[in-house]
Structures are given as C-alpha cells and as structure tokens.
Design a protein that fits this description.
Blueprint: E1 2-6, H1 9-13, H2 18-31, E2 39-43, H3 52-63, E3 69-72, H4 75-78, H5 82-91, E4 94-97, E5 102-104, H6 110-143, E6 155-159, E7 165-169, H7 173-185, H8 191-201, H9 214-222, E8 229-232, E9 235-238, H10 247-258, E10 278-280, E11 287-292, E12 296-301, E13 313-314, H11 315-326, H12 333-346, H13 348-380, H14 386-430, H15 440-450, E14 451-457, E15 460-465, H16 469-475, H17 488-493
Parallel strand pairs: 1-2, 1-3, 3-4, 10-14
Antiparallel strand pairs: 4-5, 6-7, 8-9, 11-12, 12-13, 14-15
Helix pairs in contact: 6-14, 6-16, 7-8, 7-10, 12-14, 13-14
Length: about 500
Amino acid sequence: MLYARVSTAEQEREGFSIPAQLKLLREYAALNGIDIAGEHVDVETARKTGRTQFDAMLAYLKRHTTVKAILVEKTDRLYRNLKDWVTLDELGVEIHLAKEGVVLSQDSRSSEKFMHGIKVLMAKNYIDNLSEEARKGMNEKAAQGYWPSLAPLGYRNVRNDDGKKVIVVDPEIGPRVARLFEYASTGQFSLNELAAKGRKLGICYRRSGKPIGTSTLHYLLRNRLYSGSYEWNGRIYQGRHEAIVTPELWEVVQDVVDGRAAANIRADSKDFVYSGLMTCGHCGCAVVAEIKKQKYVYYHCTGYRGKCPERYVRQEVLDEHFENLLKQLRLDTEVFELLRSALKESHADEVVEREEARKRLSDEADKLQRRMDMIYLDRIEGRITAEYHDRIIIPWREERAQVIRNLEHLNSVDEAYVDDSIALLELVTNAHKGFSATLPKHKRRALNLVLSNCTWANGALTATFRQPFEMLRDLTPQTSCHPVSKSADSAEFQDLVTPTGIEPVFQP
C-alpha cells in the first residue's frame, strides 16, 4: 500500500509534492519486487486538516490482511502523532520508509524501534512548531488589543476597514448580556435563576439556537472581555473593542459569583503541577490540589462518585514518586552520543530539501519584486494608468508578502527541528535530577511528554510510559544500585550510525 501526504499548500509548492512522493514509492516498489495493492493520498489545507485517506487505508488494511506493507516517503509523511504509530504497530504491517532506507516490522530490533519512535516525536514536534507559529500570531494580535479568537455571546466577528478581524457588539444580544450582568450584580439570584432570566431575554447559542445553560452563564459572567479588557495566556490586555459593561460592574459581579470577601484570593491553578495529570485508583475520579494553611499544597480525590478512602497527600510526596518513575529512564553517555549523531544524520535530507525550498522562495520573491519594479516604471513613463497599476500590483504585493512569510518560517524552524529532538532526549534522560526543585511548568512538560494514565491509590503511584520511552525503559536496567550495563544494549545501538573508524569501543 502506497501512502503520500502534504500537510499544507505551502509544502506542496516547496517541493513536497504528491507526484514526487508517488514516483519515488513506485520506483521503490519496482526495485524491491513489491506489488502495489493501492494508493492513498491526503492533501491537508488550513480549512481541511483531517486525513480521510489515512483512515481509509487503515480500514483497507484491516479488511485485507494479505497486504503486509505500507510504503511511504519518510517518517513525517506517515505520522502526525504517537497515536498513528501505535495504531499501525497494532496492525502488524511492515513500514517501508523509502527515502530513509528503513524497513520496520515486528521483527525489528528494539534499538531500531526506539530510533523510529524518536523520529515520530520529531514529526510531532514539527507539527507542534507549526501550531506554535499560529499561537505566536494570536499572541501578537492580543498584545495589540484585538481579541484573537471567536467572539463570545454578545459580540460578532467582523473585518474592519483595514481588513483585520475584530469583534463588535451584537446590536441584539449585547444589550441583553448587559442586562444579565445587572441582574447578577444585585446578588438576589442564583445561577439557575440567572440562566432562566437569560432564556427569557432570548440569549441563545449561535449554532444550535438553544437557550444557554447554567455552565455557559457562569463562563459568561466570568469573562473579563465584556468589561473592555481580556485575559490571554495568563496576561491581561486592554482591548480596542467596545465594552458591554463597565469594569466596576464586572468586578461587583465577580464578588457576587465568588461569594467571597475581597481578601479571599484564589490560588493559581497553574502552580499545581499534578492537577489534571492523575486520577484516583479507587474510584477513577480526578485528583485535585488545594492549599492548606495558606502555604502547603495537598492533593486529594474529588470524590465525585461518592465517598473515597484515599487520604490527602502532600505535593512533596508526589514529587518523590514521580522522580522515582523518571529514574527508570537512563541513557548511557556513549549511547546518547550515538543517538545524537544518528538524529543529525537521519535528517540530512530534510536540510537539503529546506535549502532547495529556501532558494525557490527567494527566487520567487525576487521575480515578483522585478515585476513590481517594471510595472512601476511603466506607470511613471505613462505607458499604463495609475488605476491599472494599482489593480495589478496589489495581488503581486500580497503574493510576495506570503512568499516572504514562508521564507521566514523556513529560516525559523530549520535548526530547531533536530535540536529540539536532541533536547528531548536530554530532558528525559535527566528529568529526575533535581526534580523537586524544578519549576512547575517544566515538571508538567516532562511528565506529559513521558507518562500517561497516572493513578494514585493507597500511597502508591502507577503510570504508563508513552512510546518510545517505554522501549527506552525496557532497555534500561531497573536496578538502582548498579551502573547501566553497556554490553548488549549499547552494542545494539552501535549500528544506528555509519561507522567512521573513531566510534567508542564497547566492552562486554
């Protein structure tokens, strides 16, 4: 089975075209005597991100068990996340990575599988990087005073005279939302009663047309945006949009909803490292945190499904348990250096491709600039009218701006692609060192990356290592009093890179 994919229209223009991928795979199949049962192609755009053909391929492979192999150009063409890897692994098919010269099967050595898992993570990191670029754009917009997301109830998304997406007050719903805030400020109504008043006012969900519920009302009353400012990524910005209520009225409503005195300050959930990371091993409910005596952080089961026997546990105790789990992941220094070299070598093709794409984009920008210069001269010398010049040059200017943005993106992600993967290995290898003193956000990053299905019961922590770290764990001797052996496993990793004659010698 042949599979090809491009993730964006830009990628297709920059040399990752479908025809080029299919040509490579057909030649590979012919050279290796592989019969082609079918071809599946996905082209993702900004508006369409699903992979319908990938899902269709999986369905085909499940129905036709005689098809035993998938041919794909390289790792990041096949996988977008670790779930894809696990799904294909469960099917038991061979994965032929034509451009990388790698064939993976159930019989592949653990070192090969681990290396492949790292490449899958790299592909995911690349996708995450693209998402990060989008988040950067939204953050920049927020910093300029423009709400960067969908308008909440009471506002509408429109484009201003400059073509920028902004929010404006909905002339029908906006005054009704203001009325709800006035009702809430009196303190005479419960949330259920306020929700009923919202329904009477005709405040409904945009898409379904159904009346708002209590949870939506609670979110609405909490939303600072209605007061003219807003919170985005933990920071508060003064918006350029029209406020529906005054800041003073909004603050009064917060006190009413909280039912608190001004001095009763809520703890910042971002400081609770393990909130949302664990469930109770007794009842399956979430394990949440709270502050006692204004300084000690304790975790406990929510007990949502009834009484739970699990006792409160200090955060310091959880630090120790998670640290002990991370200690199960260790890489010998020499093995780590071999993996580092392998990662850099394995992505030499990507470097070449990005250089070629960079040259194409640079040439395209220069060509468009020459066009604009020539038509400007035509206007100056009277060969064309100013109106015709303006009509022609606008799309050229926009196209060149897009080309420059694509070029800047290539420049920004080039080195980070491999370097981030190496940093990933370093993070995991050294995650346990000084874990208790690590900043909460760094703890969460390491744990979310490495672990899943964390449960706490009877004073014990259990968790599942995500792939490929489960393989790394299996390759690591699980004794705390002996150094890591370098005989069998290290020797297995030795052939991951091409010998140069100066490799370290492994002694049994």
